[in-house]
Each structure stands twice: as C-alpha cells, then as structure tokens.
Amino acid sequence: MSHFKDNMTAEQLAERALFHLKYSRGKDLRAATTFDKMMCFSHAVRDMAVDGFIATQRQYLDQDVRRVNYLSMEYLIGKMLSNNVYALGIEKIACEALKALNITTEEILALDVEAGLGNGGLGRLAACYLDSLATKELPAYGYGIRYEHGIFRQEFDHGWQKERPDEWLALGYPWELIRPEYTLPVCVYGRVKKNFRPGQGTADVWEDFQVFEAVPYDVPIIGYQVNTVNMLRLWKSQPAEGFRLDVFNQGDYVRAVEEKNWAENVSKVLYPSDYTYAGKELRLIQEYFLASCSVRDIIRRYKKNHSDYSKFAEKNVIQLNDTHPTLAIVELMRVLHDEEQIPWDDAWDITVSTFCYTNHTLLAEALEKWTVDLLQRVLPRHMQIIFEINHRFLQKVELNHPGDGDLMRKVSLIEEGQHKQVRMANLCVIGSNKVNGVSALHSNLLKTNTMPEFNKVYPGKFTNVTNGITHRRWLIKANPELSELISENIGEDWKLDLAELNAFEAYASKRAVQKKFMEIKRQKKVELCQTIKELTGYIVSPDSVFDVQIKRLHMYKRQLLKAMHIIHLYNKIKADPKTKIQPKTFIFAAKAAPAYLIAKSVIKLINTMAEVINNDVDVAGRLKVVFLPDYNVSLAEKIIPAADISEQISTAGLEASGTGNMKLSLNGALTVGTWDGANIEIAQNVGEDNIFIFGNRTEDLAELGRKGYNPWAYMDKSEDLQGVLEALRDNSFDPSEPDLFKDLYNEVTEHGDFYYYLADYEDYIKCNEEVDKLYAKPTKWAEKAILNVARMGWFSSDRSIQDYVDDIWHLKKTPVDMTDDIS
659, 698, 749, 814: which is the annotated catalytic residue? Predict the structure, then answer.
C-alpha cells in the first residue's frame, strides 16, 4: 500500500515551503524572518497531512465505519512540528529542504508553538490516545475547546507563583484548519413551557434562550508510518450577533460590544476560576459548549449515511474523558427526544449504548457537582431531562432493591441538602454502557470504595484500562540517543510495537551497554543543566543524582513530603558539616491552581529553600534545589531523559494512575513511590527489586483512619521529624517572616494531616537512604535502570487503546488506501 509521502522529495518539500512563504506569508527569502520560515515550513508539512486527512475521511465515510468520538476538556499535544515530521517519516528530506530556506531544523523548532489546550495528566493522556488511535489505523475523532488562553504561563515573583496569560495563539497556529461552514448555534438560559400538540398531548419546549456560536477548527493527527490522519476538532465561541452598530451609533460603546465579549469568554480560558458565582456559571456554559457542539457534529456526520437513528449506537462511541463533558448525555437525549421525536425509552437506549465514561479520580472534591439552581438557570430543559432520568432510574432501583433507602440516596443523581446538587459522576455511570478506571488499583477502589452502590446496581459495567504513553514522543523523540542504543542492540521493531522492547533486557548486565547507557544519561543531564541555568540562574552538577518530581501541585501528590526530606538532609549537614551525603539535585516543576493557596505556599517554600540551600557554603556540592517555572510538555521532554529518580509519592489510594511515572521509568529513572496508582503495575512489570516502594498502603491508611489517626504521635517519637516541622513552623529559611509557612505546619499537624505525611515520613527517609546506597554501586544502578527501560513495553498507549477496542469500543482497524489519486 502506497504512503502519501512516498513520492515527496526534499526539492518538492522546499518548493512547497517557498510557495507558502510567498503566498501565505507574502514575503521572499530576502525579507523572511526565522518565524516566517517556521510558519511556511509548518504549512508545507501540514499540506502533506491534509492529503492523508482527506483520504482518511473519505474512506471512513465510504465504508460507514464505527467511530470513537473522544470528548475531553484538555489536550496537551505539545509542539507539533517535530512530531509531525517524525510521524510522516520525512526527517532526512526535511533537513535537506530547509537548506533552501537558509535555516536549520533546530532554529525553526525553537519557534514552534505549544498549544495551550491542557493542564496536566488528563490532557497529556488524551494526546497520547489520539496519537495511538491514528497509528493503529482506528476511526477516531477528538473533540475539545480552542482556548484562547491555556492554563496560564507561570512566573515566580520572590518565590511566589504568579499567573500570566498564555498567549499561544497571538502569532497564529499553523496546524489548524478553520471550518466556518460547520458553525453551530449554542443555546443557553431561557425557559421551558408546555406546548400542546393535537393528538400527541403536551410537550416541553425550550424557548427565549440566548444564542451564541461555535466555530470548529481542525488539527490533523498523523499516524506513525501509516496513511491514517485523524482529526482533533476544537470549538471556538463567538457571538451569533457581534458588534451592535445601532447601539454604537447611540453612543453606548460598552453595550455595543457586550454580547460579543460575553460569547467570546466561553472559550477564552481553560478552567475559569469557579470561586465566584459568575465563574461557576461560565465554567458550566463552557462544559455544555463542548458537549452540545460535539454531539450535534457527530449527529451531522452520522446523517450523511443514515436517515434514522436505528444504527446510531452501532456506528458511534462517545467516550467521556472525566466528568467535564457529562452534559453530552443529556444533550443527546434532548436532541433525540425533543427534536427528533423519538420516544423516551428508545432515545435512552440509544444514549446509554453510545456513551462510555473514564473516571480519573477517587477524590470526592474532584467528582463534579452542579447546583440544581444553576443548572435550571443556564439549561432549564436539560435540568428537566436530568430529573426525568433520575426518576425513571430510581424507579428501577426500587423495583430491584425494594426498601433500600440508603442505596437510593447514594445512587440518586440529586444530592439533597441546603442546595440541591446534581452529581455528574453518577450521571456518567447511569448514562454509559461501560465505566473504566485507569489503573488496576483505581478501578478496584472505584468498585469497592467510591461507587460500590453502582457496582451493585450495574454488575459488569465497571472495568479497567490502565493508562499508557506514546513512546514515539516520550522516548524516540525526547531521547534519540537512548533510542539509538536500544536499536543498535535489538533492531528497530520496538518502535512499531513497544512490547518488543523486552528484548533489551538481555543487555542489562552487559558492561558495554551499561557504560553507554550511563554516558547517555549524563549527556541528557548536561543538557538539562544548561536549561536550569537559563531558567533559574542556578548552576548544578550533572554528576549529582537528579531527583525529579514533576506533576501538578496538589497536597495529595505530596511535593511537601519531598521538601521535608530536603529539610532533613539540610538539618543533618548543618548539625555536622562533615556528614557524607550523596550529592543530589532536587528538581521540581509544577503549576498550582490559581486559587489553591496552600499549594502555592508549597511552591514558595521550595523556592525559599532553594535560595538558602543553593548559596550555603556548608552544603556546597552536596545539595541543590531547583524549581523550574512554567512546566509544560516541552520542558518535560528535557527533564524526563535526564532524571535518575522519579518521585511518585502520592498518598496511597488517591492517585488514579499517573503517566509521568511511566515516561520517567521508560527513560531509565528508578521510581521512588507509594503502592498507588500505576506504580503498582510498574512494580509488577519491572520487578519489585527495581523500584523503591515505601509507606503505608491503602488498606493500612484505612485502618489508621478507623483507629483515629493522630499525627502528633509520630512527631513526639522522632527528634528528626520535630526538627523538620520546626523549620516549617518557624520558617528557619527566612526568619524575617517567621509565620510564612505556618499554614503548611498546621496542615500536617493541627488540621489532622489528611494526606498522612507524618505517617509515611520515616519510611520515606529510609527509602531514600536505600536509593543512595544503590547509586553508590554504578554497575548495579545501571542494570536496574536498563531493566526499567526494557520492561516498560506494556505501558504503551497503543496497548491501552487496544484494551479499549477489545473491551469497550469494538472498533475495526481501517487501513487507508492511498493508491487513488487525491484531487
């Protein structure tokens, strides 16, 4: 089967880039800036993707394939240029073509834009899944929001996090195709009235709503070395009626653009703060915006081949990535029942057969709830439908479990209280045919702890798909030197099937391979040292252990526990400056939610510690602390290959899965972690001898909680821990502000230590001592690091997607034939 890039030469690619330089940028080579060259070359590469994209969509339509529609509020797709060049297999001709533009690959890659479409693991996972779906030649669409501003650009001001707008669209984005012809109206507010229809009784009709519009932008998702090019469709909000000239001419300039501003705010920023009523309302509208547009777009596409809805669920899966797109369930019901006049029971059967839901959290506060009042105000008809879904569902529960009032209360969509709330996770479960967790432990806890009542009502509905990562970005692109070492020893097959990576295990004990592996690791550390110097001004040694904790800043992820370990080491040195300690560089990168004040205090603490420790002559050459600002995909691609230690130290039972742990282990970092999330499956795959597990397990913490957990008891019996906590309480790093970190001290003492820092502290210290002992044996360390790399094949997102296909989606592989001439 021919590939759409097979006949492309370096000369043709250069010609296409020069065409775009002239006709898309309006310049010739003499006037072109580096930015112009990056944009015109990106457009040339996009043109190649469009060929595959057209052929792919044509084949899906002609064959009337079953498709998965992936709905997610986040997609952290990272920089696309190098990724797309690699997926197309045109690295060599790209380098040649760029000579005609008098520029190098490195120069234009430096200017490529990182799309601000996500926050953390949820968005990165969605991006990996889109990559794997295309590579495995599976019919798929991603749906998201085209945020004008992403999460935020993080800066530090005297150690405090400051949020700045992420202006990723300011200079244009070369990978998107605008589709104004598929613009959709979106309705909010209004009221519902009874409408009498002769012979049919009364019907509820939604009217007097406010309308704005959704414009789709498509980003091609290129499969690796296949013809499949799938699509990520991103919705941008705009006013249905923009600038009011009549109002402007009356002199009311503010009101003239009021509607325009209101409508554009919907896709303005990722996760508007919901600490105010207006913020909550905007966030709800944003979630409905994604759900409504995506559902109606799926219906539009389905209607190309079908005149009724009898095969809708057969031809479409809608996968909800967390609870944010839950309203898609209600929207599909509204369209089927209200607009298409399908009887309720039939519409409900179609809906449940279409939807599937991925749960990403066990944290009660992260399971979304919306007040009934707010939903009735913003989406009055949808609230009616939710009440009706709940009424019919509870009738069935009562029928099957008569007299079980407690069960009814827990599974109800409506949480009673001063302000009635709609439980979105419950709606996801009721409205889906399959519900999956994202690691074995998480899925089990979902059934036994978080939603045992639903497991009773729906036996067999819950399943597991452990998360995965795409090695194409996180090993082959991020760490080409290690990739080359692997290929030198076991060939290239592992690049197409990561399960083949296990052949590298045979080389773990070979001295020549160990030597080369450690040389590569040091090289990546040297490169990261340069980045650290550029971003922070700190100079760190590549010969120290790089101990890395990179993830969203949250108290359950316990960055504070790592800080406590650093204070322990610092106190030890200050008590005896001659103490021998394995030289270590502690590297943090994380963003805290703008309103998450205690998490921001952790950032300030680490930056304050860095300022003192990095300039203290007593610890020179032994400890360095670095907090890298503005963590994103590009920064992760630099940190991960350089890491020696991967910190995965969340409170047991609270981390759903994790994917950073997989990326770090795949690049030869040894995990220090709790028995939590995917750490468990990593331990099972790499071997418990090749990972450092510490701390209480989920069942231990449950027992501690039952007995009445007392954090003071741990403090009372440990002078070392007392010294660490006193440093927090009194701010020994900056005595001029003695109460600065009192909130952190109180969190782990007076407020009950909800995340069990003190219960795990002693074991964590001992575990790190074991790490140091092993690092002192370079041969043994290298062997274990290589075994981590070799045994991570199971954690490919290709395997995750295959699990979804086999157990949940039931898609058919659909290779795209490019033999027909594309016109």
Answer: 659
